Amino acid sequence: MGPSFSPRTYQPRALEIIDTTLREGQQSSLLHDHFKYYFTTPDKLDIARALILFGVKYLELFAPNVSAQEASDFAAIRQVRDELVYQRGYAFLLAHVRCHPADVEAAIAAGADGLNMYIGTSDVSVRHKHGFGLDEIARRARDLLEDVRRNHPGLLLRFSGEDAFRTREDDLFRVYDVVAHTVDRFGTPDTVGVATPASVMQRVRILRERYPQVALEGHFHDDRGFALVNSLEAVKSGMGFLQTTLLGIGERSGITSMTALLFNLFIDKEYDRLEGYTLRGAYPINVMMADKLRKLVPSKEPVSLTNRTHAAGVHSKAVLNDSSTYEAHPLDQFGVTDTEILLGPLSGWNIMHYFLREICSYSIDETTAKAIAARFKQRTAELNHELSPTGLLIEIAEGEFGLKSQEVPEQFRGQVRQNMTDSNSLQEVGELRHATGVILRSA
Ligand code: HCA
Ligand code: CU
After folding, report:
1. What is the torsional sign of CA 201, 207, 212, 216?
2. Is 116 touching ligand 1 by the criterion CB < 6 Å?
């Protein structure tokens, strides 16, 4: 038995992230696209550990009766959670359960701290999923929830009308009114990604007014590319709980990325909502997740090295002088501490000069660098899987111009204007990156 704690006495922070990487995230098609298919138990433990250390207090998992594997992983994750209690405080394991006694019993038996119960309330759900009318749904949910509340008063109970944003407001009220007295939170999942910032603002306002004693939780799918902006709007409208995943993975185009949401709250100076999250761990946790998926941190993820990567010659030159020319946001506070300039067909002589001098330690003047750059431009068609831009550049420098690399004595290495390293070294921190770029380490 691990340390005991009543989930319902914990005082939530201004924003509580409910991570669902291990539930919604496992429904991502990316797992298939990358021939990964499932997270292994060690993957899940790494993910859970990283999230708890980052400051996440709620992890959503599948109901343990989904499969024998999920049941044993539930227990293993619980163990990891218990081990971290003294270091990072208590984190809650929430089981995603259907409005069904079998799911509820399995979750309770597995030691869940709370139940995230859901049932479809939209017309399509009623018609094609379960066939119960709204009053029947409300009655079943109420009976089950009242029963759990009576027998397990310490459990956190959440109820969601699945497809809430395609459920008419009155229909939602018809069900939520009947169960409101039994629950700690209401979910309002945008299951198919139809919500807009305006509809989110309106829904949050109306639900807060009607159920002032019940906390609200959001879950926004990205079908229109609105998951992030909808979540931001929800938080600013007073929603205290947001479901997110690492890198935003989930069914179809996924849901809100945790780091994208926190990063935007930071930019918008919503600092009180960031209490307790180790923001500098944001990029490392994304790298860890990408590594599990055997992919790069996606280019559309705000907290990514991609957002500090430059290819165009004129950009590179400006960034060499001052990276703020093409980087507006405080990504270093989220752990993206490097700027990367890609060497390639678009590069100018400045970056080549810089690379040859600072990384390769050639003694090289500007005139030679310009001549080498001109040759490089003539030969870019040769670039391919075997010949990288850095390889070609070195081949030209040594083969055509006879340059020789000079060993920089150890004591002088710190004195280069910026400490540049070959991007291969990034693999040490887990990111499989282009391996043709030049990394500028900012301080
Ligand atoms: C699902 C649907 C869900 C549930 C969200 C919730 C959704 O995959 O079961 O429990 O609030 O998007 O509606 O992810
Ligand atoms: Cu979902």
Report:
1. negative
2. yes
